[in-house]
Amino acid sequence: QQQVKQSPQSLIVQKGGISIINCAYENTAFDYFPWYQQFPGKGPALLIAIRPDVSEKKEGRFTISFNKSAKQFSLHIMDSQPGDSATYFCAASKEGYQKVTFGIGTKLQVIP
Amino acid sequence: DAMVIQNPRYQVTQFGKPVTLSCSQTLNHNVMYWYQQKSSQAPKLLFHYYDKDFNNEADTPDNFQSRRPNTSFCFLDIRSPGLGDAAMYLCATSTDGPTDTQYFGPGTRLTVL
User: Fold this and answer.
1) Which residue, among A10, A51, A98, would best test binding to B if mutated, counting the most B CBs under 10 Å from its CB?
2) Which residues of B touch A95 (CB under 8 A)?
3) Angle at A56 between CA A4 and CA A15, to 5 degrees
4) pLDDT tens digit string along A18-48?
């Protein structure tokens, strides 16, 4: 019930291409879905987040798509750049729970 | 800048020798977390504090202890480090709000010889 399943675990994308990372969850009580970006040797940092009352949220080149009925959400990185090379974690939490359930992570490599 | 600070950034200890990692925050957040992250894995929550209330995860070994003497500081004590405890230890904070966004420190890389 608390799992968040993330795929793929690794992804190689050409510069300028679209990177897509998918996540699925089981617990319908989750009401907040953040994505974290982690560079090697650094702590994760919040990239973008969405609530289930909207189907899409866009911030610059980063877009979250959310499908409440399918219990799935995904991160799209448009015009991917080598500087986007990092590990991306999807996550889920519920208000007042204070804890976040992380996906396994996706290591993205953007090649020139 | 308001931030989460962890010290030291790198810690080398010997098998069985106690070690303490520290975390401080200037965000005035009431929730503080300790995570263990091993290579190519997601952060694993060890425990968290909501103000002074300590919440231990069921699968956190007794070897791991924590202290939070005030709002700003939190410590992770590893009483008898084993080789399997070598990892990145991440401190994070959050407010008790609807978003539960967590703000992570840079981590402490622990090596056990």
Assistant:
1) A98
2) 98, 100
3) 80
4) 999 999 999 888 989 999 999 998 899 999 9
